[in-house]
Design the sequence.
């Protein structure tokens, strides 16, 4: 192979792998009913490893649907972890006062900060926050196009956090979801260094830290912006 091209056999193996993984993720072996969130890794993990942002990323990169209520439940669990309680990022409280955020990290028990592996403190990541914003935009598009809101016992905490219930109109649901995504991207812009994006933001000060100009941060942000355009251009059912 040369460049970015794939030989037919490689493409077939990739398609098969995606199919297999999608089937595995669809299995409730990856669901924690007590915690109301997806499980990213079966087996022993470090404390606070679940819920994990990688389960939400699965909806961004194609393994799960954004309308999967398990995904939405996991988003709600992560949002609660980083806005309330022992793992809350102080910067999220400051941003909330400005109508921005929240920003998301990798998992509540994360201790990697990119500068000092032994810091004992995790921080919000640009790419994680952008991915969660994209889930909101993609869900807004799905709701607008189908006229259906995926509310059930699992996803209710997600919609409760946004003030959405069974009486909210489809147009308002789509608008609220887009606004939620905008607030997250707004936090990224506020804390960026003149629109440059590093890997992480300090959980207290909001200043950028760790790897500078991380490509994945930019890619995730731009992907979210494209999802926003799709959501805003999706016609509501008549």
Sequence:
């Amino acid at each position: 192979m040369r460049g970015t091209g794939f030989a037919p056999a490689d493409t077939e193996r990739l398609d098969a792998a995606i199919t297999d993984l999608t089937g595995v993720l669809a299995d409730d072996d990856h669901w924690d009913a007590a915690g109301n969130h997806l499980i990213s890794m079966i087996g022993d993990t470090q404390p606070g490893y679940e819920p994990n942002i990688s389960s939400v990323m699965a909806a961004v990169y194609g393994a799960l649907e954004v309308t999967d209520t398990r995904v939405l439940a996991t988003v709600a669990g992560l949002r609660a972890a980083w806005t309330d309680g022992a793992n809350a990022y102080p910067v999220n409280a400051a941003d909330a006062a400005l109508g921005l955020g929240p920003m998301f990290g990798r998992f509540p028990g994360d201790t990697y900060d990119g500068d000092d592996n032994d810091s004992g403190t995790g921080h919000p990541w640009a790419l994680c926050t952008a991915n969660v914003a994209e889930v909101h935009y993609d869900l807004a598009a799905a709701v607008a196009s189908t006229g259906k809101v995926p509310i059930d016992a699992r996803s209710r905490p997600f919609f409760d956090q946004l003030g959405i219930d069974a009486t909210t109109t489809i147009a308002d649901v789509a608008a609220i979801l887009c606004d939620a995504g905008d607030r997250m991207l707004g936090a990224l812009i506020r804390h960026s260094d003149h629109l440059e994006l590093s890997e992480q933001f300090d959980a207290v000060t909001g200043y950028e830290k760790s790897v500078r100009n991380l490509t994945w941060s930019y890619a995730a942000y731009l992907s979210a912006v494209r999802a926003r355009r799709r959501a805003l251009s999706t016609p509501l059912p008549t």
User: Anything to note?
Assistant: The chain has one domain: 8-233. The longest strand covers residues 31-32. Residues 170-191 form the longest helix (22 residues).
